Amino acid sequence: CVCVHTNVLYLLRCYSFPDKFRIRVSQVLVLPPFQLQGHATRLVEAIHSEVRTDSSVFDLLVEDPSEEFIRLRDFLDCRDALQLSCFQRESIKQDFTKEMQEECRNKLKLHPKQSRRVHEILRLKSTNLVNRQ
Fold it and tell me: Is residue 63 among the annotated active site residues?
């Protein structure tokens, strides 16, 4: 039996007053021979599925992410946000609201900065770039 470790991930559980925790992704490493095979995507999806169902988790943060990790996180967060009622086609054309922020925090465990980033990405995606109005 051969066991090959393809990736490494460090999570930190930080106390958030009064009774919650913040999960911090500290480091993610996928070894070069195993990159571009979807391992990081599956790893982040596994983290999301655990964290988002834990009522004691306040939000999920990433410490100093690489450009590649930012792209991956943005893609997955945008994909997941499209399932929320506040990010439907007509709502996304409006300005970012407190309700959007709260729904992202409660259902996706996104930090407010990441929620706003997701909103801006999806808003740009829904913008007709040909129409100047």
Answer: yes
pTM for the whole structure: 0.83
Tokens describing residue 79: 């994909």
For residue 72, what are the contacts with CB-CB under 8 A and spacing of at least 6?
40, 41, 44
Give Cα 56 distance to the centre of its chain: 18
How far apart CA 124 and CA 103 sit, in angstroms, is 20
Amino acid present at 9: L
User: Each residue of 43-97: pLDDT tens digit?
Assistant: 889 888 888 888 888 888 888 888 888 999 999 999 999 999 888 877 888 888 8
Pick the catalytic residue: 50, 63, 99, 120? Answer: 63
- DSSP character string of 66-77: -HHHHHHHHHHH
Instruction: Give the tens place of pLDDT for each residue, 90-105.
Output: 788 888 889 999 999 9
